[in-house]
Amino acid sequence: MSGKVELVVPDLGDFADVEVIEILVAPGDTVAVEDSLITLETDKATMDVPASHAGTVVSVDVATGGRVNAGDVVVTIEASDEDFGSSTIVIEPEEQEAILAKVAVSDDTVSEPLPDTTHFAELVVIGAGPGGYTAAFRAADLGMNVILVERWPVLGGVCLNVGCIPSKALLHAAKVIDEAEAMAEHGVKFGKPEIDPVALCGWKDKVVGRMTDGLAQLAKQRKVQVIHGIANFASANHLELDNGETIGFRQCIIAAGSEPAMLRGLPDDRRIVDSTGALELDPVPDRLLVVGGGIIGLEMACVYSALGSAVTVVELTNALMPGTDPDLVRPFRKIVEKRYEKILLGTKVSGVQATSTGLDVLLEGKDGNTAETFDKVLISVGRRANGDKLNAEKAGVAVGKQGIISVDKHMQTNVPHIFAIGDLAGGPMLAHKATHEAKVAAEVAAGEKSAFDARSIPSVAYTDPEIAWVGLTETEAKQDGVAYEKAAFPWAASGRALSLGRDEGFTKLLFDKESGRVLGGGIVGPNAGDLIAEVGLAVEMGADATDISLTIHPHPTLSETIAFAAEAFDGTLTDLYIPNKKK
Ligand SMILES: Cc1cc2nc3c(=O)[nH]c(=O)nc-3n(C[C@H](O)[C@H](O)[C@H](O)COP(=O)(O)OP(=O)(O)OC[C@H]3O[C@@H](n4cnc5c(N)ncnc54)[C@H](O)[C@@H]3O)c2cc1C
Q1: Which of 223, 269, 362, 524 fits as disulfide partner to 354, beta carbons 3.0 to 4.6 Å?
Q2: Residue 86 above 70 pLDDT?
């Protein structure tokens, strides 16, 4: 049985004439129960109106910019469920409560008299990592009065101080060492490098210092007040700092990031380090064990190997960089298998004993147990979000498993005047995701219409070779049954790659089988991290192969490999012979 059902605006509490800011469906679309139909915005909050019935949209009965009240028809659908019965939307009591609570909390908390606090700001941002400082700066640029609270003495968070920037500085040194050595094959020989880890770290720290000093300057220029201290929520309107001071706020953005996860039961020994300790190069050991074959562990393995350590990598699953398309990892693995002492997959560390001569590590693998001694052990088994370390419950903010705080597309938590962004807001723990979310949160806080609607977030392993991907991966496409076509271009046919002495890489693009639009792509080879941005743009803009192939790429560059992969899909590629792809 089926029939027409009118889906209406639910009870909006005290609100009337609420603006429709976005229409999320169009006639012909199929909607499932709970799918969002439109977005409404009061002056205090935004909310989506969900579908109470599944079916096909016949007509959209409101327009963007129009105003609606409870009971107004939003969308008419041809219901597909058997049990559609009435033509009135039925909102479950809990759902209604949630919608009303969202609007009510926003209203109450903003108008409620604020507690008597040491400091007060329209917007407080907790944490000055890439998420936090970007949010604070964007909000200040939009005219808000902002306080940025940071527990560390410098701004920049993990990314600038103990993450992206210092690791890339060391990886650059590693690349220079490796490239100099590789030139011997091509007739240019250098002597063995003399490595001074203290001076190298000094250079790395100088790079970091320039960045963090720059941030302090940018905060000053924008009149963002920076307060140093550990912040905890005392209510939905104020924070307490560890120095006894308090900060009142109208709105708050939580950007307190994440911390390295540690294995349990390890001895307390300075030779066992996390990624922060590993960046100190103190010392560069003869034998290094990297526990965890993810991106961070493999980047540090690259650094230590170039500096002269014999590296062993142990990974619990059966793949390096778990989750990454295996074909992208293969060229990297082939190279590091020759360089590293061992790569042990499907293996776990079941015990570590510290002795005066080293760290005795018990390794439990498919073929039984072995014990090996290392001079240093890097634990890089993931990171844990800091959402559950802020007394968020005192503000009514729900914190999920692993310290993650759930948010909607406006980066609002279940308490709409409190936002969460970055590593603690779920999704990939990446700086560029944090900064993108930060701008959305700041804009929404400032009353702008903004939402996180990026189609894709690029990932990059700055290993040697680099591995980068964006959008749909082949692994996901296969899992989800997405109809896709793949086109790839091997770097062995790229003049630029050959002139760099690097022919191991390739570029692949995935296309929607029907529309021909780019769904995603992956690149392995030097500078893959820079190159992947073009594929990201293609995904974001809904470009197809012809859009890329008819864009003239400079020659000879590695960027041409993206155009060549698109030409391979179009059947217009002349730099390789693909007989069955001629069009
Ligand atoms: C070794 C390493 C390499 C990495 N490389 C890359 C890379 O190449 N590219 C990439 O995109 N990402 C990389 N990342 C991940 C990246 O660093 C994070 O995704 C990013 O820093 C997250 O930003 P954030 O603002 O959410 O939090 P964070 O950078 O973690 O910042 C959170 C800030 O909040 C502060 N804080 C926490 N609690 C409180 C409190 N209660 N009161 C006051 N302040 C508080 C912290 O001191 C910190 O400064 C790397 C990470 C590591 C560890």
Answers
A1: 269
A2: no
**555 has catalytic annotation:** yes
- Convert the pLDDT of each residue in 441-469 to its tens digit: 999 999 999 999 999 999 999 999 999 99
Strands 36-41 and 18-23: antiparallel
Give the pLDDT mean for 237-248: 97
Is the pLDDT assigned to residue 148 strictly greater than 90? yes
Q: What is the pLDDT of residues 263-276, one digit of tens each?
A: 999 999 999 999 99
Report the distance separating Cα 545 and Cα 442, nearest Å.
36
Residue 160 Cα to ligand 1 middle (Å)? 8
Q: Which two tokens stand for residue 462?
A: 């700055």
Domain 272-381 in the same topology as domain 119-259+385-445? yes
3-state DSSP assignment of residue 582: coil
Burial of 104 (0-12, 13-18, 19+ CB in 10 A): middle
Q: Residue 128 C-alpha to ligand 1 middle, in angstroms?
A: 9
Q: Which CATH topology does 459-570 take? A: Enolase-like; domain 1 (3.30.390)
The answer to pTM > 0.85 is no
- 469: nearest Cα among 330, 336, 325: 325
Average pLDDT score over residue span 295-304 = 98
User: How many other C-beta atoms can be found within 10 angstroms of the C-beta atom of residue 303?
Assistant: 27
Distance 151 CA to ligand 1 centre (A): 13
Average pLDDT over residues 314-333: 98
Q: Which sequence spans correspond to the domains of the chain?
A: 3-93, 119-259+385-445, 272-381, 459-570
Please give all residues whose beta carbon lies within 6 A of any atom in ligand 1, as ranges: 126-132, 149-152, 157-159, 163-164, 167, 230-231, 255-258, 275, 296, 386, 390, 422-423, 429-432, 434, 462
Q: Looking at ligand 1, which residue's alpha carbon is closest to its atom 17?
A: 159
Q: DSSP letters along 484-539, please? A: EEEEEEEGGG-HHHHHTT--S-EEEEEEETTT-BEEEEEEESTTHHHHHHHHHHHH
502-542, pLDDT tens digit by residue? Answer: 999 999 999 999 999 999 999 999 999 999 999 999 999 99
* CATH T-level assignment (fold) for domain 119-259+385-445: FAD/NAD(P)-binding domain (3.50.50)
288, 304 contact by CB (below 8 A): yes
CA angle 434, 436, 441 (to 5 degrees): 90
27 Cβ neighbours under 8 A, 6+ residues apart: 57, 58, 59, 60
Helix (H, G, I), strand (E, B) or coil at 571: coil
In sequence order, the 6+-apart residues with CB closer than 8 A to the CB of 556 are 494, 495, 496, 499
For the domain spanning 3-93, the CATH number is 2.40.50.100
d(CA 302, CA 55): 53
CATH pick for 272-381 out of 2.40.30.100, 3.20.20.140, 3.50.50.60, 3.40.30.10: 3.50.50.60
